[in-house]
Automatic annotation (TrEMBL):
InterPro entries: MJ0683-like, rSAM, rSAM_sf
The protein's name: Radical SAM superfamily protein
One Pfam family named in its UniProt record: Radical_SAM
Domain of life: Bacteria
Keywords annotated in UniProt: Iron, Iron-sulfur, Metal-binding
Native source organism of the sequence: Neomoorella thermoacetica (Clostridium thermoaceticum)
Domain Radical SAM core: residue ranges: 28-264
Gene Ontology MF, one: iron-sulfur cluster binding
Amino acid sequence: MPTRNGERQTVVFKIYETACRSALNRSRIPGIDYCLNPYTGCSHRCIYCYASCMARFNGHQEKWGSFVQVKTNFIEVLAAQLRRPKKGKVMLASVTDAYQAIERKYGLTQRCLELLTASGLEVSILTKSDLVLRDAELLKAMPAEVGFTITTLDDKLARLLEPGAPLPSRRLAALEKLARAGIRTWVFVAPVIPGLTDAPEDLAAITKAATRAGAQEVDFDPLNFYPAAVSGIRELISRYWPRAKSAFDHACRHPAAYRQLLKEIIKHSKSC
C-alpha cells in the first residue's frame, strides 16, 4: 500500500493450517440457508472490512488482513455433512473471500464446488476476485450465481481501499465472461463511502458498467459505521482527499440521516 511519500509498505502475511469441526453452517443472512468459509482471514486487506473483529475470536494477535487460516480438513468435513440431504442456498463465503489468493495453492473452494454439484443445493458466490473464472464449468453444472463486490470503478482508488484485491476492471471482465457462459451474475456496490464514492454520477457509472457486462442485478450497501472501518477510511481521506473529510465526518455523526440521503442518491443515480 502506498505511504505518504509514495513508497510501498511491506506487508508481512502469515498462513496457518488448522482443522475445523463443521464446514456447512446455518446462515442468518436473508435468503441464504448455509454458508461455507474454507478460510478464516483475508489477504485483500480492505480498509473498510467489517470482518476484522473476527481476528480476536480466532486467537490471533495479528491485524486482520495480515493472516489466513486454512482449514485443511474442510473438504472431508463437508463431504460428511453432505451425506444427509440438504435443501436451500449455500453462500461461499460469508466472512471472507473464498477466492482470495491462497485459493490458488489450496483449492478448497474448487473442491467444495465439486462436492456441491451433486448436493442439490443452490450456490451463491460473492467475491472480489477473477479467480472464480477457473471454476466456470463447475458453476455451469449447478444452480449458481456469482456476485462481484465493486466499491469504485477507479482502479487507483481501489488499490488504496482494497490493496490486496484484484482491480475492479478485472472483476468486470470476469463478470462479463461468466455472464456470456450463461451464469447468473450481479454486482454488489459496497460499501458506499460518504464523500468518497457516493457521487450520483459515480454510482450511475457502476450501474451502467455492470449492466453492460451482463449483471442481472446491482445492489447498493451503505458503509457500516463500524469503528475500525471508520478509523481506516478517515485516515485515508485525511491523507489523500482532505476535501471529502467534512462530508465523511458528517455522515459518521448522523448515520441514519446519511442512509436516507443515500437512498435518494441511488434513486437519482439509476435515472442518470
